[in-house]
Amino acid sequence: MKKIIVTGALGQIGSELVTKLRNTYGTENILATDIRKASADVTEAGPFEILDVTDGEKMHQLAKDFGADTMMHMAALLSATAEEKPLFAWNLNMGGLINALEASRELNMQFFTPSSIGAFGPSTPKMNTPQDTLQRPTTMYGVNKVSGELLCDYYFQKFGLDTRGVRFPGLISNETLPGGGTTDYAVDIYYKALAEGKYTSYIAEGTYMDMMYMPDALQAIVDLMEADSSQLIHRNAFNVTAMSFAPEQIAASIKKVISTFTLDYDVDPVRQAIANSWPDSIDATAAKEEWGFQAKYDLDSMTIDMLETLKRKGI
Ligand code: NAD
């Protein structure tokens, strides 16, 4: 039975991951942590502690006292916010990661942290981007993610630490709003479609990016962490994706349900530049072959589920 410590547990991924892990491994076996406390299932339905990931000593102590055998490190500054505060992003993203890796090495914990399609850059092949390819990102977030992938591989090679990761695309969910990424529009659009019947996109028409629905992302984390180590040729980090679309395609999908929905554009140059530097679509073959990755939701099935769930929540 796993005993897992999760950092950044109140974020878009962490808030749903903790519930999934509690349902899978038992509430008492999952310690959720975050720099802040909020009134939510994560903090009230099971073990929760305040933890700033730049405090390595406290991280080590909490993991040790809990008897954790697994670390899932989610705390980070995302792409758009990191571009506004690059030095802060470096210190949080790299400082938090090295603390999490060190605690994992000292306590011999299995380790997971997500990388991102942001780990690719303008010189990366844009279509069907391979697992192993050129990674020269031009954003601080991308620099952090490539450095992080290398660091996680280093800890595996040097210390034998069982590090694993995925390169997540934009994640679409309905529990916690996204925290300052470039793909956030693809979440926003569903909320605005229901509330106002229209949406103004900060990403330009024709800009393709990979995306995935949160239930598939959470299952991918569990499946990768459960995979037989000897089957893993790659580790940090696997390309995973479910779909690739541009704003006009998600709008068309919404129009199938809300026929009066309209989309217009007011492009944000900062987030558009980040999007332009990322792949149009990535190839997830290595994840499929090495640990059986499979996404269930495509664009239309995700749209139906998003709109139904948000409606149920009174949006
Ligand atoms: P988020 O911004 O929604 O949440 C981050 C959480 O970290 C927040 O709850 C915040 O309070 C917490 N945090 C911030 N500073 C902290 C600190 N010093 N110590 C402890 N906690 C701190 O992020 P997310 O979307 O849940 O992303 C989690 C991970 O997944 C990140 O590494 C991110 O880069 C990666 N990722 C996310 C997406 C996506 O679409 N959401 C896509 C690709 C990769």
Give the gist of this structure.
Helices cover 43% and strands 15% of the residues. It is α/β, with parallel strands linked by helices and 315 residues long. It folds into two domains: 4-169 and 221-239, Rossmann fold, CATH 3.40.50.720; 170-211 and 242-312, UDP-galactose 4-epimerase, domain 1, CATH 3.90.25.
Folded structure, characterized:
By secondary structure, the chain is an alpha/beta fold. The chain folds into two domains: 4-169 and 221-239, 3-Layer(aba) Sandwich (Rossmann fold), CATH 3.40.50.720; 170-211 and 242-312, UDP-galactose 4-epimerase, domain 1 (Alpha-Beta Complex), CATH 3.90.25. The chain is 43% helix and 15% strand. The chain has helices at 14-25, 41-44, 56-66, 79-84, 86-107, 140-159, 185-195, 214-226, 247-255, 269-276, 285-291, 299-312; strands at 4-7, 30-34, 48-50, 70-73, 110-112, 115-116, 163-164, 166-168, 170-172, 198-201, 209-213, 238-239, 243-245, 262-265. The strands form four sheets. A six-stranded parallel beta sheet has the order 3-2-1-4-5-7, with helices on both faces. Helix 1 (14-25) links the parallel strand 1 and strand 2. Helix 3 (56-66) runs parallel beside helix 5, helix 5 (86-107) packs parallel to helix 6 (140-159) and helix 7 packs parallel to helix 9 (247-255). The chain is globular and about 55 Å long. The N and C termini lie far apart (38 Å). The structure holds nicotinamide-adenine-dinucleotide. Residues 7-8, 10-14, 34-36, 51-54, 74-76, 78, 92, 114, 116, 168, 170-171, 178-179, 181, 183 line the site of nicotinamide-adenine-dinucleotide. Nicotinamide-adenine-dinucleotide is lined by residues 7-8, 10-14, 34-36, 51-54, 74-76, 78, 92, 114, 116, 168, 170-171, 178-179, 181, 183.
